[in-house]
Amino acid sequence: MDALTRSLPTWSAAEFGRRLEAQRRGTLVQFAAWDAGVPIGRAHVLFPGHEQWSISAHRCRCVEVRDVFVAPEHRRRGAATAMMDVVERAVSDGGLLRIGLSVAQDEDGAAARALYERLGYEFAHGPYIGGATIPGDDGPIHFAAVLAYLTKEL
Q1: How many domains does one find in the chain?
Q2: pTM of the prediction?
Q3: Residue 83 falls in which region: left (phi positive, over 0), alpha (psi -120 to 50) or beta
Q4: 34: confidence class by pLDDT, cuts 50, 70, 90
């Protein structure tokens, strides 16, 4: 966890610990991509029962991929594609047949939208405004974005 926190910081130093606890409860699975012993990417899947499992996931009857991130210096080399492949296989091996995710509709989300389209994700609903307040190291972080929800049958 120290390597993940150092190389792929999130909004809170305690976030990976919270995810590990949710993984122990069976409501989340965390994934990481590594290169030469250094974590370069991360993603996680939320299952029903996780406190952050979204209305969209409930509506689409799917598990939900979140926080797909590859360090900027490692992008465009296949890490996100490989990570999504592992995520999808793990979900499918667990007997689940549908996966979903939210993707930003602004220019910053263009590369992610192209990746998910190439991987077979299809528009389920949107656009909608998604927002959250998350516990940051320096206090709560509020954010909102215009999103679309995509799903894929596994």
Answers
A1: 1
A2: 0.88
A3: alpha
A4: very high
Residue range of the domain that includes 19:
2-153
Task: Concatenate the DSSP letters of all residues of 133-150 into one string.
Answer: EEEETTEEEEEEEEEEEE
69 pLDDT above the threshold of 70: yes
The C-alpha R_g of the chain, in whole angstroms, comes to: 15
Region for 145 from its dihedrals, namely left if φ exceeds 0, alpha if ψ lies in -120 to 50, beta otherwise: beta
Residue with more model confidence, 36 or 18: 36
Mean pLDDT of all residues belonging to the chain: 90
Question: C-alpha angle with apex 151: 147 to 154, nearest 5 degrees?
Answer: 155
CA 72 to centroid of chain Cα atoms: 16
Q: What is the amino acid identity at position 64?
A: E
Q: Which domain CATH number covers 100?
A: 3.40.630.30
CB atoms under 10 Å from CB of 146, counted, come to: 13
